[in-house]
């Protein structure tokens, strides 16, 4: 595979952009190799600047459930753009999108739109702290909620203590308010509740940022009960799983209603758009109705909202969509599992709607410690060999993969063949 243009582009980018990328995972640091510079996308495919074609299982890290260059999203965006790119004043579009989301997500009475998932979770936590009147929060090891200070925190030395900053520049004074519990482990949550003065719990109910690790049902039910017992606000971060795991996100799998939900990725149809919503009683504390400050120059941007609205309307209109996507994702994971098994390689796989994940691991993965026990070296080689075969997978062992509506069984089968060949090649090296 010829990648000279990407190599040159990467070198040039590094002269003027830190690390050559505007989001660190794009640099391929954990898998080695050169990040491909993308020229364009079309349906299920990416084309790099050297003209190589890749079957894209990253889909912009989740947003593009209808694939690249969806015609109706393009038209909706162009139409909006022709009326003006931004007003800093309300539009009817925002109301329409809010209505669609509220209809589909229990516990969401009111919405507020922002431009990134990071903003959505940061604002939801501020609101939850204001509502509960308490500063301490609980997050889970391996869950990612964007890069705001309170959330860039990893577990401290003991399990049930407050965390320590996971990045330089995050003050200890912030991280001491963030308790880090273990995913799928209610006892660790209870310990945090007993130690801190917990105002809110934030969780990815279907965790997609340590690989794909869904919460167990009893765990989420127990989490809801603990929040009720201690009077804490429960936030479901559905920035990834919303409109991805199912039309109703995690609510399609669990009978648990959170107090606040955060959205992003799919709701923007590929444009920068995110949001958070929840019970009226909590949302009404938000400015201008209440005193909790939150704002944004480009929040609810008409072009982004038009793209998102088009995506959501198309998704809703296609009744069999999620079943079809889940079939494709299951076919892919079953295929990978078979190819691995044939060659004596341990592989754990998981599917939730259009989301899929796999770990080179002999143990079932239920939390971040389990995930970390996976063979990341093997994954790095696998990633490289799949890429050489035109299969574009997320460039980290701890990410979720995505299928999109333009994908076919034939494309999935090609990826399975590539998987077999790649594993074979690694074994023979
Ligand atoms: C992607 C993601 C975020 C952050 O969203 P950005 O738009 O990248 O800021 C937050 N939470 C979850 C669960 C995500 O997957």
Model description:
This protein is of the alpha/beta class. 38% of the residues lie in helices and 16% in strands. It has two domains: 4-69 and 319-428, Aspartate Aminotransferase, domain 1, CATH 3.90.1150.10; 71-317, Type I PLP-dependent aspartate aminotransferase-like (Major domain) (Aspartate Aminotransferase, domain 2, 3-Layer(aba) Sandwich), CATH 3.40.640. The chain has helices at residues 4-16, 71-82, 92-104, 117-132, 172-175, 186-195, 217-230, 280-283, 302-317, 321-342, 368-372, 376-388, 409-428, and strands spanning 38-42, 45-48, 53-56, 110-114, 136-140, 153-154, 164-165, 178-181, 198-203, 206-207, 213-214, 233-237, 260-263, 274-278, 348-352, 355-359, 391-392, 401-402. The strands form five sheets. The protein has a seven-stranded mixed sheet, with helices on both faces. It has a four-stranded mixed sheet with strand order 1-2-3-17. A hairpin with a 2-residue loop joins strand 15 (348-352) and strand 16. It starts with a helix and ends with a helix. The model has no long low-confidence stretch (mean pLDDT 96). Homodimer. Belongs to the class-III pyridoxal-phosphate-dependent aminotransferase family. HemL subfamily. It is found in: Cytoplasm.
């Amino acid at each position: 595979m010829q990648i000279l243009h990407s190599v040159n582009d990467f070198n040039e980018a590094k002269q003027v952009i830190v690390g050559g990328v505007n989001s660190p995972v794009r640099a391929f640091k954990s898998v080695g190799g050169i990040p491909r510079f993308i020229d364009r996308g079309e349906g299920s495919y990416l084309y790099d600047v050297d003209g190589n074609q890749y079957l894209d299982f990253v889909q912009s890290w989740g947003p593009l459930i209808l694939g690249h260059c969806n015609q109706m999203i393009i038209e909706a965006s162009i139409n909006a753009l022709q009326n003006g790119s931004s007003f800093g004043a309300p539009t009817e579009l925002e109301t329409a999108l809010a209505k669609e989301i509220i209809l589909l997500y229990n516990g969401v009475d009111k919405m507020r739109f922002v431009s990134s998932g990071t903003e959505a979770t940061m604002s939801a936590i501020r609101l939850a702290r204001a509502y509960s009147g308490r500063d301490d929060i609980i997050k889970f090891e391996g869950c990612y909620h964007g890069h705001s200070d309170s959330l860039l925190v990893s577990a401290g030395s003991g399990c049930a203590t407050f965390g320590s900053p996971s990045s330089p520049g995050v003050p200890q004074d912030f991280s001491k308010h963030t308790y880090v519990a273990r995913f799928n482990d209610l006892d660790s949550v209870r310990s945090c509740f007993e130690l801190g003065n917990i105002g809110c719990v934030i969780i990815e109910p279907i965790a997609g940022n340590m690989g794909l690790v869904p919460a167990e049902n009893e765990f989420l039910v127990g989490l809801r009960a603990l929040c009720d017992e201690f009077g804490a606000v429960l936030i479901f971060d559905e920035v990834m799983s919303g409109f991805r795991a199912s039309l109703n996100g995690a609510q399609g799998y669990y009978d648990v209603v959170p107090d606040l939900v955060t959205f992003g990725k799919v709701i923007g149809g590929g444009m920068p758009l995110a949001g958070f919503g929840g019970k009226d009683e909590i949302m009404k504390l938000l400015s201008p109705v209440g005193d909790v400050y939150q704002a944004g120059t480009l929040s609810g941007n008409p072009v982004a909202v038009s793209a998102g609205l088009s995506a959501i309307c198309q998704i809703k209109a296609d009744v069999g969509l999620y079943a079809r996507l889940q079939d494709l994702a299951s076919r892919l994971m079953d295929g990978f599992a078979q190819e691995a098994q044939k060659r004596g390689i341990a592989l754990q796989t998981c599917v939730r709607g259009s989301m899929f994940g796999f770990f080179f691991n002999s143990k079932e993965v239920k939390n971040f410690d389990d995930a970390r026990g996976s063979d990341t070296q093997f994954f790095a080689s696998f990633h490289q060999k799949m890429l050489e075969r035109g299969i574009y997978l997320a460039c980290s062992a701890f990410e979720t993969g995505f299928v999109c509506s333009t994908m076919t069984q034939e494309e999935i089968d090609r990826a399975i063949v590539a998987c077999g060949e790649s594993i074979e090649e690694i074994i023979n090296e």
